[in-house]
Amino acid sequence: MEGSARSRPAMVGFRPARLAAVELGGTTLRVAIAKGLPTNIVTRATFVCDVPEATLGKVRAWLACQTFDALGVASFGPIEPRPSQPKYGFITTTPKPGWRDVDVLGGLGAFAFGVPVVFDTDVNAPAVSEFRAAAAVDESLTSCAYITIGTGVGVGLVVSGLPVHGMLHPEGGHCPMPAAPGDTWCCPLDLAIPNGVEAYVSAPALASRAGVSQAELATLSDSDPMWEYTAYYLAVLCANLVLLTSVERIVIGGGVMARASLYPKVRAQLLAILNGYLQLDQLTHAGVNEFIVPPAHGADAGLVGALTMAHDALAAAHEARRRARSRTLSSPFSWGVALGAALLVGVQVGRKLR
Question: How far is the C-alpha of 226 from the C-alpha of 256, rounded, in Å?
């Protein structure tokens, strides 16, 4: 199948390819080099996501010290992922201060490295790699959603084995949410969609609700009622994904989900919300444990996703060159040139023999 084929080590000639990744998150920016396979990370670094020019400049300098054959860049959004558009490679309408309309690929000097480059969201990228990991076990799988819960909330979606883009890319982290029964709290954050998922479950929203810093969220007890509300809102998001896309697997990662007790709460809330409407194995008390899961690649889900994009970009570049050579060799002009050259060589050899 396509997924297993793409899990083979990427090669350049007779050596394993070196793949580069940039994962641009709302708080930190991570970079890595992998050898052959996206999961085979051989070096990495982390930078604070500060002002764009300084942050991207540090990453550009780091990349310039590396050797690599393809580059995958996965960024928080909204972004412009369509190569045909003038702002391809930009972060566009993000609420993150200072990062609106920032040319990420330009700031990284991505095209100056002379290698294939691909740009997508920091959730579409891990959605692809998580899908591939699951499809390697279950070849019938065709779809997967990846949700990250951290500084922001994002949703990546793979359908029929490919990441969804459509008009732009999914922005499920901002889907409007009905208030949970009994929840009277109002998010004070300045968000474009004030009742979206991010307003209820992002790290800044949770810290505001609890009256603590984001760093202190980890110290809260699992029994804090806030986590039941968090699970409810995540379960509503999962229910919408199930009902709208019929997705076969939902992976939830990000810093907030380091609290492992959230997973069983989300699963239970999802089953309660769907209320038996869909009679499917995945939506039973036994099956839901394999339907809503943590990332197979753990905390490296975003990096492995970006490296997977680099892996695929290199494979696509190799295939494009192969097809170009094939077209050249199959053209009448090429055969005429080859025949003419052969005749000329024959004449020259014949003269020497005489």
Answer: 13
Total residue count of the chain as it appears in this document: 354
Cis-peptide into 178, omega within 30 deg: no
Q: Regarding beta strands 292-293 and 250-253, do their DSSP bridges make them parallel or antiparallel, or are they unpaired?
A: parallel
Q: Is the pTM of this model over 0.70?
A: yes
Helix H or strand E encompassing 145:
strand 143-149
Cβ burial 42-61 (10 Å sphere, 16+ → b, else e): eeeeebebeebeebbebbbe
CA distances from 166 to 80, 159, 288 (A): 12, 12, 29
E strands present in 8-96: 11-12, 15-16, 18-24, 28-35, 41-48, 70-75, 90-91
What pairing do the DSSP bridges indicate for beta strands 15-16 and 11-12?
antiparallel
Structure tokens at 302: 């975003």
* Per-residue pLDDT tens digits for 258-285: 999 999 999 999 999 999 999 999 999 9
User: Which residues, including other chains, have CB under 8 Å from residue 130's CB and lie 6 or more apart?
Assistant: 144, 146, 249, 251, 295, 296, 297, 301, 305
pLDDT at 349 over 50: no
Q: Can you say whether residue 275 is alpha, beta or left, with left for phi > 0 and alpha for psi between -120 and 50 degrees? A: left
Look at residues 37, 45, 49, 29 and name the one whose alpha carbon lies nearest to residue 8.
37
What per-residue confidence (pLDDT) applies to 13?
79
Q: Which residues pair with 22 in a beta bridge?
A: 31, 73
Determine the angle formed by the axes of helices 262-274 and 226-245, rounding to 10 degrees: 50
Over the stretch 19-31, which tens digit does the pLDDT of each residue have? 999 999 888 999 9
50-56: average pLDDT:
95
Dihedral sign (CA 320, 159, 233, 217): negative
Of residues 314 and 320, more confidently modeled: 314
* Dist. CA 186–CA 200, nearest whole Å: 9
Cα separation values, 259 from 227, 253, 288, Å: 10, 10, 18
Tell me the pLDDT tens digit for each residue of 173-204: 999 999 999 999 999 999 989 999 999 999 99
